[in-house]
Amino acid sequence: MSVTTVPIQPIKKGSLTKLWIGLAVVLLIAAGLAYIGTQNAVVTGATNEQFLADNATEDGVVTTKSGLQIKTIKPGEGPSPTATDTALVKYEGTLRDGTVFDANEQTPMPVGGVVPGFSEALQLMQKGGEYKIWIPSELAYGEASPGPELPANSLLIFDVSLLDFITQEQMQQIQQMQQQGQIPGGPGSPAAPGGPPPGQ
């Protein structure tokens, strides 16, 4: 039985170093392409859970026990609103693909009267602060679709500024004053916008 040998040429000095450098470059390029591909998949093709898991690793993002994610863009000052307060907010809501489904420059909203994720986020904010929040579908509308602009099981992303808030007691005082005609806008005010015309 004979064994055929194939002569192997000796490696030139320095070639091994070049080989390792070349291999390292190829691996770095492959890793970069894999990362870009993963990021693209997370944004477009990943599940909401995968998207949130990846987003949780971003700098400054805090994930609460419920799964809500919040990032402080600009810190506010003072106390945070409670579930019984009314907040004055500026916001823009988008889907994962960047589609804007709602926006408002200044709107009052009862903190406890919005979807659970938004309510929780408001209670973590401070007056004058700017925040970015990611609301998992189960803390938003879940399998329900409130309209064609929001498909079922949508992950909601909001940029929110907490402009101000008032307590339930302050809101009740304002409503009483309006009813008594002590401030414009109450039913006793003759020129109240949306109220009855003067003389009626």
Verbal overview:
With 200 residues, the chain is α+β, with helices and mostly antiparallel strands. 29% of the residues lie in helices and 23% in strands. It has a six-stranded antiparallel β-sheet with strand order 1-2-5-6-3-4, covered by helices on one side.
List the helices and strands and how they pair.
Blueprint: H1 15-45, H2 48-55, E1 61-63, E2 69-74, E3 86-94, E4 100-110, H3 116-122, E5 130-135, E6 156-166, H4 168-179
Family: Belongs to the FKBP-type PPIase family.
Keywords: Isomerase, Membrane, Rotamase, Transmembrane, Transmembrane helix
Pfam family, one: FKBP_N
| Regions with little confidence, pLDDT below 50 for 5+ residues | 37-42, 186-200
Estimate the mean pLDDT confidence. Answer: 82
Number of helices: 4
CATH class of the domain at 60-173: Alpha Beta
Strand content: 15-25%
In CATH, the topology of the domain at 60-173 is named Chitinase A, domain 3
Gyration radius, to the nearest Å?
29 Å
Order of adjacent strands in the largest pleated sheet: 1-2-5-6-3-4
CATH second-level architecture of the domain at 60-173: Roll
Catalytic activity: [protein]-peptidylproline (omega=180) = [protein]-peptidylproline (omega=0)
Pfam families: FKBP_C, FKBP_N
Family: Belongs to the FKBP-type PPIase family.
Keywords: Isomerase, Membrane, Rotamase, Transmembrane, Transmembrane helix
